[in-house]
Amino acid sequence: MSQLTICVIIFVLTLIGFAVGSKYVSITLISLISMVLLMLTGCLDTETALSCFSNSSAILMASMFIVAAGLNRTQMVRKVSDFICRISKGSFTKVLAGYVILTFILAQFIPSAVVCFCVVFPLGVSVCREMNVCPSKMMFSLGITAIGTVITLPLSSAIQEMARITGFLEAYDYTQYNMQLTDITFAKLPVAIVIMILAIFVLPKVSPDYPMGDDDSISESRKSTEQKALSPVREVIGYGTFVLVLLGMIFSSQLGVESWQVTLIGALVIVASGVLNKDEAIKSMNLSMVLLYVGALGIGNALSATGAADLIGDGLSSIVMGVHNNYLAGLMLFIVPFILTQFMLNLGVYSIFTPLYIMLCKSMGANPIGPIMLCMIACMTAFFTPLATPAVPVMMGAGKYTMKDLAKMGWIPFIVITIASVGWIMTVYPIF
């Protein structure tokens, strides 16, 4: 059996494992097992496998998580929330708009929809109770904003994602098209604006009225947002380090330093100054996500080395080329991962389809940015089932929603987001 055949078999088994095995084994473990199997079968050489763990993008991701957690440890969220309540003057729409914007801002710094939602929703519940409004009228709006607008502005989360995509492009030896930080914002910002408009003006009208009593989970979440305040010096360090790291990332070439070096120095400052303690820093690194990237990178290297990437890309390109229409092709590229993400963890689907779309575009000689961005948006706007992202079951608990409620509330944003995403991205990043 040739190495190409072995590589394709392991790749297909990995996809199946992501689809059905993630209930029992984490997708991170599945990806690392696949990487080891590829190494043992000779599809991936040892040196390349080891280099995945020391990949600069992986280091950048882990260290940027710490820097972002340091900012979140400050009183920024509480201060912004208090400001929203002061300027709303009793208008629920204004309050909701304020919290939707706050959620959007946090989603740019915290690359996790569930963490972002858990920070905001206890504050939203408290405000709803004060205004005698059912929290169920607000929770879906906050949830879909956290899920759908994460990684939009050219800040910390986008930097991490750009590093991940760049690593994939390098792994598949398709670097004639480079992912720029502004590409993510240019592609996603119009869609994010559409999501926020829906969240403020449309979704409350289709959300059910479910009064909510005291809830232990909400009490625990509220406690987690009421951590002991940092000292004034550490507050300044938390804000200042984050700003300096962003500036360092933007001007890294002029400074003569690598991006991963900037973020690593920032992470060290956050921990050394006591903004985060050792345990908080380790927890904030999100090693599961980093190692998932390492495993996916190893699989990508093996697919490229054995020629399997070209084989898969040729197969996909024949389907897309048969359409001969940017918008129909874009609709296909969007719908498939969107549907799968309702039944699989969104990060798993995204990790599967990003390499596939890169292979497709390499085979066609097309710009991969558009398909990658369609994949990103499709995987990060899944809200019909609790299987897609941990943010959905938390949102269901906070709003007391049922699956029927999700279906009722979700069909409007699904249609609007699909049209906005495919229409905009296939216009500015066409395949043909």
Protein described:
Helices cover 77% and strands 0% of the residues. By secondary structure, it is mostly helical. Helix 7 runs antiparallel to helix 8.
Give the proportion of residues in helices.
over 70%
Rg: 22 Å
Query: Tell me, what's the shape?
Result: globular
Estimated structural class: mainly alpha
> What's the pLDDT, averaged over the residues?
84
Major sheet attributes: none
Instruction: Indicate the proportion of strand residues.
Output: under 5%
Number of strands: 0
Note the total helix count: 22
As residue ranges, the low-confidence spans are 215-225
How many angstroms does the end-to-end distance come to? 37 Å
- The topology string of helices and strands comes to HHHHHHHHHHHHHHHHHHHHHH
Which key features would you list for this structure?
432 residues, mainly alpha, 22 helices, 77% helix
Q: Helices, strands, pairings?
A:
Elements: H1 3-21, H2 27-40, H3 46-53, H4 56-72, H5 76-88, H6 92-109, H7 113-131, H8 136-149, H9 156-171, H10 181-206, H11 216-224, H12 232-250, H13 252-255, H14 259-272, H15 278-284, H16 287-306, H17 308-321, H18 326-341, H19 346-364, H20 369-379, H21 391-399, H22 403-428
In short:
With 432 residues, the chain is mainly alpha-helical. It has 22 helices and no strands.
